[in-house]
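This follows on from our talk about sequence and fold. I would like you to pick a protein and set down its sequence and fold. Go ahead and set the record down below:
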Amino acid sequence: MGVRLLRKFMMALEDRVFKKLQKAAMRRDITLQELFRAVIIPDWITKSIQQSQLIEQENWEN
């Protein structure tokens, strides 16, 4: 049985941003942490990959 390394990070949010995210989580009946794990981070990764692919395509065409 191997050891699983888990990375952690801390985030500071303005109060208005925190409240907006908290409301989004409440509408989905999930915690704020679950919102980050299940919605925000996967969406950010998808968009980041798409952006990288567009940049690579533009560089290839030039």
Observations:
- Helices lie at 15-27, 32-61.
- The CA atoms of residues 11 and 38 lie 17 Å apart.
- The chain has a mean pLDDT of 91.
